[in-house]
Amino acid sequence: MDKINGKIFKEMLESACNHLNSRKKDVDALNVFPVPDGDTGTNMSLTFTNGISEVRKSGSESLSVVAKTLSRGLLMGARGNSGVILSQIFRGFYQAVKETEELDVKGLSDAMLNGSRLAYKAVMRPVEGTILTVVRESTEAAAKFADENPSCSIEQYVDELTNAAKISLDHTPELLPVLKEAHVVDSGGSGLVIVFEGFQAYLAGKPFTGAEEPVVRKEEKSEKASGYRTEYILRLSDQGKNSFKEERVRKTLEKIGNKLTLINDGEQVKVRINTMMPGEVLTLGQRYGEFLKVQIENVQDDLKPSILDEKEEEKEVPQEKKEYGLISVSAGEGLEKLFREYRVDVVVSGGQTMNPSTEDFVTAIGKINADHIFIFPNNSNIIMAAKQAADVTEGKDIIVMETKSIPQGLSACISFNPESDPETNREAMQEAIDNVRTGQVTYAIKDTTIDGKEIHAGDYMGLLNKEISVISKDKMETVKKLLDELCDDDTEIITLIAGEDASDEETAEIEAYITDNYEVDVDVQKGGQPVYSYIIGAE
Question: How far, CA to CA in Å, does 197 sit from each of 155, 293, 528?
């Protein structure tokens, strides 16, 4: 094959998306830290699926239209750093093929090279040994091959691109010691290799099919459709089988949607619900196991009277213009309530287990009629999506504060002064962020070694900022030792945020430990967050 057109490119993308969706759990498993939030594969899968969904909806087979639609779909659906970088690769691809209806090898090579360049530009401090290295080395190697073999076919170019990506991926542990110690390759780079393998398979006449693809499919709309028809099939993890309480989950889901169907056979759970918050539905499900299939359909155009009508009407009432608006990310009813008490206008549902997309932030921004909007991502893997949303939003001054934890976000909100100017507020909030140290207690889901520490599945871990500082078989011992690491003579305030699995008795014991051992003010909150039994802020 000498050239590809829009139809061929579209089918290459379908094959790549199907392959990525079926392999996302393998990519998730490459997470270096053994915490139950390895979501790179899930993020890339949901990002790519959103892009392909938009391409399908367009119905076009024009190369320029397919590339443009894909770029926009990926950009708006981007979740996590890996998803944002993936969206930038194909944004760069589109920029190189505008007004083009056919690509020869040289054109395809130039487009991929431009995608690599744009991805690097999107990251303030690029780190080698990641997806960025894989895309750069593979596109450069394939470009060199094409230059040295001017008569090569599209198939030969993509073969070279894929093989070079695999070689680069295998080398990532040599560039990032943390990967080498954990005996894994980079997860984002692995996802990109899977995309290229999808291209390669289609061109070889053996495209990957969508047996496990989380497609966005059409269905007959219900009279009581509300926002997004969200469905998933979940395979329960061993821990999920013990912790999944059907009635409790049912009650939680009924609070955020209607038309609920929940089926649990002890091994798998199937959920179908109409909701305005599909991300929150997925976040709730993911804590109990692994998604086998996800389907989301936007049915807002056919809204009928439902339990969400009042909220929808309130959202559509024009707001009076104000100077400031605040947006924060969190998971857990308690944390959402707390942020709202601290003047936050919109709380975007998400966190470790389900990173919000660019579109989630754009939607949140659209709900606020303010001159200046501050966003608190509260997670390092969400900052890029928030910034991307700020970049694509016109007519509003949007400042993304790079909060990497819930305590940092809370401290920033407390420091916000509606009477001050934007720059004074930014400086005050940044100072507050810099003064917060964060501790988190969670459990290990696999055996591994990090920083010379042996960790076994089921161990409790105390994370000090992003480093694992405490490992123990006992939860309470882990919390207390982590507190000893967090607190020093300068510590004045401890914020203790209890997760969904923390009992009142455990929390009371920890509060007593703090007051008995440290001269600090203690603020105890029921966050209800998943994954982390306790989140602790020290100031």
Answer: 12, 21, 41
Tell how many helices (H) and how many strands (E) occur in the chain: 20, 18
**Which DSSP letter does residue 375 get?**
E
pLDDT grade, residue 319 (50/70/90)? low
- Would you say residue 313 has pLDDT above 50? no
For 24-57, how does the pLDDT look when each residue is reduced to its tens digit (9 = 90+)? 889 988 887 777 655 888 899 999 999 999 999 8
pLDDT single digits (tens) 257-285: 887 888 877 788 888 888 877 777 887 88
**Per-domain residue ranges of the chain:** 3-203, 228-302, 318-434, 437-538
Angstrom distance (rounded) from CA 514 to CA 168: 48
- Fold classification of 3-203 (topology level): 1.25.40
Contacts for 48 with CB less than 8 Å, ≥ 6 apart:
16, 17, 20, 21, 74, 86, 195
Give dist(CA 63, CA 55) in Å, integer.
Answer: 11
**CB of 496 closer than 8 Å to CB of 534:** yes
pLDDT of residue 352: 66
Average pLDDT of the chain to the nearest whole number: 87
Categorize the per-residue pLDDT at 298 as very low, low, confident or very high, splitting at 50, 70 and 90: low
Section 66-87 average pLDDT: 94
Give ∠ CA 27-527-415 in degrees, rounded to 5. Answer: 100
CATH value of 318-434 in 3.40.50.510, 3.40.50.300, 3.90.380.10, 1.20.140.150: 3.40.50.510
CATH architecture entry for 437-538: 2-Layer Sandwich (3.30)
Q: Which long-range contacts (CB under 8 A, 24 or more apart) does 360-366 make?
A: 360/279, 360/385, 360/389, 361/327, 361/385, 361/386, 361/388, 361/389, 361/390, 362/76, 362/389, 362/392, 362/393, 364/327, 365/327, 365/389, 365/390, 365/393, 365/396, 365/398
Q: 471 vs 241, which has greater pLDDT?
A: 471
What pTM was computed for the model?
0.78
Distance CA 76, CA 277 (A): 16
Question: What does 125-189 look like in DSSP terms, one character per residue?
Answer: S--TTSHHHHHHHHHHHHHHHHHH-TT--HHHHHHHHHHHHHHHHHHHHHH-HHHHHHT---HHH
CATH class of the region 228-302: alpha beta
